[in-house]
Amino acid sequence: METSPAQTSVPASTLSPDVVFDEFPEDVDPLTGLQVADPEILDRRPVAVKISNYPRSVRPQWGLSLADIVYEYYHNNDLTRFYAIFYGQDAELAGPIRSGRLFDSYLTDIYQDILVFASADVRVLDRFNAEYPAWQLVPLLDGDCPPRPVCRIDPETDYFLVADTSRVGNYAVARGGDNERQDLHGMAFADEVLEDGEEVDQINFDYSYASYSYWKYDSDSGRYLRYQDTRDVIGSRAQIYAPLKDRLTGQQVAADNVVVLYIDHFHFFYSHETDTDPVIEIVDMDFSGHAPAYLFRDGKVYSLEWVREKDQLLYLVDANGQRFPFKPGTTWFQVVTDETQLLTDGSAWRFEFILLHPE
What pLDDT is recorded for position 267? Predict the structure, then answer.
């Protein structure tokens, strides 16, 4: 069955942004709801790393399974990229690091993190520099790692930029920055399996012929396992997948929550391909207010809304405007357009990404 987000949208009149909820203890990570072994790790800003997923030769990546939160979103030319947030634990290596995009500026505002990326288009850099001090942006470093928090490594002839997330905060302080603990309360968590919710054990995302993936619910672990494309789908070729592994841990990438965010996308800049120049595509989004969302947890799906308010974390609400709880653990946010089509077939759901390019 094919549906659109409008068919499942929570009425705006039911939203109640002033819901009061308890703060977390000092030793509980507010981005996962989990107790940490050493509470001092939370006495800092989160570290966000832009991690590449294309070309496929960059896989397996380092550190994805250790991030508290990962956002996957369309960046340009039919491909997606990851914005991985490390807070409750660090990754000795996180990467390969790639360039920033406009959507990163909204995420850095929400999570008050230090952003590690590998440069960006000048129009993107202009926004970053207008919104954030230089110490909060780590655009590119070369040299020895350590002592530098970012460096290049050369596994099997590839030359990748990676970060040690535990060293990024000290680097920011050395540049005159602030690495104090931020107010990151806003997400709600609950251990128990929630009532209602439709059973869905596979969630496919078709961003393009080249970028597609799915999450499979594993009832033994209570987590969603990630599978990633292995070839372009051209003509009659079928999609083929393989487990997405973490090169640092050797484990398949998994998440306790998978959340679909419908966000209005638009082109900040677009130039068509010519005989001498490739397409230049810079995508922006209207990431404010509230819009439809789906939360997948415990093998079930819940139709909700995401809410983004000034100086608050992104959170989810139900039809009564109450904050809806994540399962304690890690969360992957899959960002799609409000034109994206949802195809449901029993316990398998498929999101077909749609973004129209300028004529």
Answer: 97
Strand partners, 341: 352
* 31: helix, strand or coil: coil
Q: Which CATH architecture has domain 30-174?
A: 3-Layer(bba) Sandwich (3.50)
Identify the pLDDT of residue 146: 73
Taking residue 322's Cβ as centre, other Cβ atoms within 10 Å add up to 14
What pLDDT, in 10s, does the model give residues 253-304?
999 999 999 999 999 999 998 888 888 999 999 999 999 999 999 999 999 9
> For residues 83, 41, 133 and 173, what is the CA-based torsion angle, rounded to 10 degrees?
-140
Return the pLDDT at 141.
78
Q: What is the pLDDT of residue 157?
A: 56
Q: How many angstroms separate the CA atoms of 44 and 26, rounded?
A: 12
Q: Write down the mean pLDDT value for the chain.
A: 92
d(CA 282, CA 264): 14
Each domain of the chain, given as residue ranges in start order, spans: 2-22+187-352, 30-174
Nearest CA to 294 among 323, 325, 316, 265? 316
> Which percentage of the chain shows pLDDT scores above 90?
82
Rg (CA), the chain: 20
Which residues are CB-neighbours of 210 under 8 A, at least 6 positions away? 54, 78, 79, 229, 232, 233
Helix runs in 41-158, H state only: 102-111, 122-131
**Residue in 240, 243, 252 with CA at minimum distance from that of residue 212:** 240
Tally of CB atoms within 10 A around 220: 5
This prediction's pTM: 0.94
